[in-house]
Structure formats: C-alpha cells, structure tokens
Write a structure and sequence with these properties.
The protein is about 70% helix and about 0% strand. It is mainly α. It holds the Pfam family DUF4168.
Length: about 140
Amino acid sequence: MQRMTALFAAALLSAGLMSAAAHAQQDPAQQDPAQQDPAAAPEQPQAAAPATDFSDEQLEQFAEASQEIVVISQEYTERMHAAEDEASQQEVQMEANDKMVEAVEDNGLDVDTFNAIGQAVQQDPELMQRVQEKVQS
C-alpha cells in the first residue's frame, strides 16, 4: 500500500510537472503543496536529498511515463469525483495506481526509480529543466 501511495504522490507531482511543461490546465487541489510553494521544498534536510545522477535514458523514460500518468491521473480523477462512496473511491484509486505502475514499468523504470526521479526533480531546478526538455522533444 505504501508503494501505491508513493506512486500516486509521484503521479500528482508528474501531473504538475507535465502541465507546467505543456501549459495544460491541472486541478490545483491535485498538485503537491511543495510544488505550489517553492519555499516549502528547501525545508528538507540535505542528507535526505535524493541522488540526481540519473542518466539521460532514465530521464527520458521518466518523462514518457509521466506523460502517460498525467492522462491516467486526469481520467481517474474524474472517475473518483463521480464515485458515490468512499469504498468506490478507494477502488478507483487502486485501479488508477495499477495503471500508473504499468505505465512506469512499460517505460523501462521501476516504481522506486520513478519516485526517486520525481523527488529529485522537485528539489533540483536543473534536473526539472532537463526533464522538461525531454517532454518537449
């Protein structure tokens, strides 16, 4: 369950990252608060900062998976809002997480690496720019 929660959080980060790159509209309630307030991100200790030595291939895989996750996230967000009760919402969320895991793995990454890149991108503006360049190309 922790793996799915982490992936869902990374998906929301990706949605924010991809929408910024593509200038797409994204529901502000879905974005990571640290992404909305850049001053919130630096509060994390330096020792906990993720590695930023990802290969160009991994960044390309991350960008491709992120684009797919944005579509999945938008589709399942609509379905979650339409769900009638909490049990239905949880079912929709689990299905969305399964689809997101599949998208990550289909692009050649494991979930942990995808999440690590997502965290690093959030904390490293240069890395974020590299990923955005991959998205735009």
